[in-house]
Fold:
Amino acid sequence: MPRERPTLEAVARRAGVSRATVSRVVNGSPTVAEPIQRAVRQAVAELGYVPNLAARSLVTQRTDSIALILPESASRVFSDDQFFPGIVHGVSQELEEADKQLVLLMAGSAAGHDRVERYATARHVDGVLFASMHGADPLPGMLARMGIPVVCSGRPFGRSTVPYVDVDHIGGVSRAVRHLLDSGRTRIATIAGPQDMVAGVDRLAGYREALADSGRRSIVAVGDFTRESGAVAMRQLLADDPALDAVFVASDLMAHGALRTLREAGRRVPDDVAVIGFDDIELARYTDPPLTTVRQPILEIGRRMARQLLRLAAGEQIEQAVVLPTELVLRDSA
Amino acid sequence: MPRERPTLEAVARRAGVSRATVSRVVNGSPTVAEPIQRAVRQAVAELGYVPNLAARSLVTQRTDSIALILPESASRVFSDDQFFPGIVHGVSQELEEADKQLVLLMAGSAAGHDRVERYATARHVDGVLFASMHGADPLPGMLARMGIPVVCSGRPFGRSTVPYVDVDHIGGVSRAVRHLLDSGRTRIATIAGPQDMVAGVDRLAGYREALADSGRRSIVAVGDFTRESGAVAMRQLLADDPALDAVFVASDLMAHGALRTLREAGRRVPDDVAVIGFDDIELARYTDPPLTTVRQPILEIGRRMARQLLRLAAGEQIEQAVVLPTELVLRDSA
Structure:
């Protein structure tokens, strides 16, 4: 970086505008006419001018940045799941409209978790979004008590009062299980998600409730939302009950793994075994056969989280919970 | 946020340590013993102390943040492709080790592109990574000329001299096409990627070169790296040459779409038509049949980009190009 910095005055002289105009342009004000903005940016580029934004941040006490914390182990976050990328996408769309920067922090390791805590409490950001948590993470509540705006995806475990955006897991799963019962299936198994996540717990609860209503017994294996765990869990279910005729799988990715196991075991889908997933990611339209699944609006979860946080950061009162609807999408697998 | 800020002295008194120790802890120095770190953080939390990091940034002239620019239209970046998530994952792993923050910027729209330019030239970040570009984007070169450390994924179009990390597209595709020829295929088509991206251009060049060596004629359809475009392109190829017996597809996701089209058209894979993809994302192990594909080390691309940028930001000389190897992974589709 250059040691001797050109001044704001030099840029103003070069561009033939006032210092105030230069300041407005480099601070990103939209009120300056486009040709003048271009002239100023040209002068900034030619002189290598570096605006003193750290000083500005001292004055305004705003960073115009929002942190999104992905607390999964980094290797899982972007494995092949569409949930986290979808959340990132939704959040970034909304922040782009609000002209805020998205700072992505991984809190998978203990060290990472620690770093997130330092970064957020140091007020490098105007607010913090948490995308899906394992167990009862104390960090969101701690940040919120320090006055930092916080919004979570998914109802937090325990007694946290941090605002969140979630979907109607139980309603969606109930519709899926009822669809299987209505089409005459009698031995309906499930591949549940991780039981230290609300999405895993609630989808299993939905399955158990709907089955209990029908008087059928539950047949459960637990995966971790990855394809491989779905394949393994399906093998276990077939060993536990070779006569099972349907399976509700708590994510599309696990359902993809389960479909491979069923194919390898010579079971036809849906003739021998009906399969229903959860998520409705793009993959669901390309499996063989195309997957019947419970749709959750992943992109919209991200957008709503960002909107809630921006409202909170602006000092507005917001809802403690926003719960978005789910729907059963019928294709060929059930 | 609290109006009256507790002082560093107050935190030091509460924690029973020196001001210098408090300062080291809030600035994230790893040299402070864990129990003392805990005591300081406890005091910070109890008092709601806010370290004056903006002031620190004024002194050090470093932001400890790196921007990753995703210049695709936002809706494509996270659609279902594993390339961009893989890059984000690799970059974040490497930056986590270096204790740097990852700032994610979308430059899909013209406004977004503009915002990225403002943000980077305002030195909110220590350096900028560009993940895959369409056409000859002038932004990386412009930032580099202003003295901002820049590294791109993929060889830039045109005469840019910005450092980049890429893979051996042409070598990988040549091995794929030779494998098809060696196994007796005679009518080998391709589904190419977008021709305004180097990955699209180079993979098509690799196909044409390998076929030209064999004296066979090329049969080409162009997709945009999405599943749907692969399905559409495969229909077009079958119409153009119903007797084709193999297809090299420039991405696994397009190959997944092509497999669905072949299934719908009653063609068996690999008996009637052999299929080879490119990427080796997890999906490739779960398609029916499992996909033979050219593996590129996506995670490693992200890690190397980050490492090159950190070296550049530290004032080191770095290689103009790092080109990582690709390999043919044999499964059942070819």
